[in-house]
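I hope you will forgive my troubling you with a question about protein structure. I set the record out below, with my sincere thanks for your time.
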Amino acid sequence: MQRFLIRVALLGLVAVAAGLWITRPKADGAEVLAGLTADAGRGEMVFTAAGCASCHMAPEAEGEARLVLAGGQSFPSPFGSFTAPNISPDPAEGIGDWSALELWNALHHGTSPDGQHYYPAFPYASYIRMEPQAVVDLHAYLQTLPADATPSAPHAVPFPFNIRASLGGWKMLFLRPGWVMAGDLTAEEARGRVLAEAMGHCAECHSPRNALGGTKTGADWLTGAPNPAGRGSFPNLTPPALDWSQDELVEYFTSGFTPEYDVVGGHMAHVVENLAQLPESDRAAIAAYLKRLPLDG
C-alpha cells in the first residue's frame, strides 16, 4: 500500500509538472519582428485606436495629462479588482526599457518580460489579432510620451484567482489569434474588423462571457453584456437591436451624439474621444463592420 501511494504521488507530481510545462507563459523570438521598421506616426494611430490612454492614464486625467500613462485606474470584475499599471516610458516604474519584442509578447501572448502570465483584464485576447507592424509602430510611439515614476499599484484579486499559473489553462481555452468575423469582406469591412476585433477590442465590453471569463463568439458576438463593475450593461451592437444607419454610426463615433440626440457617457465617452481622432474612413470602416453583424452561430 505504501508503494502504491508513493507511485500515485509521483504520478501526481509528474502530471502537475507536465501541466505547468504545457501552460507555461509563451513568448516569440526576434524573428517575428525581423525586418520591420518602426513609424511613430503610424504608432500614434494604433495607440489611439487601441484606447491605451483611456485605461492607463491617471484617474480623472484630462487634456494633455491623458498622455501621461501613470496608471492607477481600477477595474472591478467578478474575479477581483484590477488596477491599470504604469506603461509610461519611465525605465524603472513604466515600460521604458521594454523592447518591441517584449511589447509584442505582452500584447500577443499575455506574457510579461520576466516570463509571467498577465491577467486577461489586459485585453490581449483581442490584441493577439494585431499585426507585428502595428506593434512595432506602437512601441515607437510609446517611447515619445512623457515618463512618469509613479509605481504601479497591485491588483486586489482573491484566492484562487491570484494563482497566475492557472492563467496558462485559461489561455489554452480562450486565447485565439483568428478573426471572429470570417467570410468574404470588402476592404472597408476588413479594415473595420481590424479596428473592432483587434485594436479597439470592442468585444471585451460588448460580448457576453462564460463562467470562466472567456468571451463568447458565434451568435453571441457583440450582443451586449453586463457591466463587470455591477452597474448597468453594455449594449447589443448587432442589428436589429442596433438599428442605426452607417452614417448615424459614423456621426456617433465622431460627435458622441446618437440619432435621438442623446450624448455618449461613461467609459464610452473615452472611446468616442479616441475614435474622433481617427480618419473618418476608419470610423466608417467600423460602422461597416457592425452593419455586417450578427454572425451565424
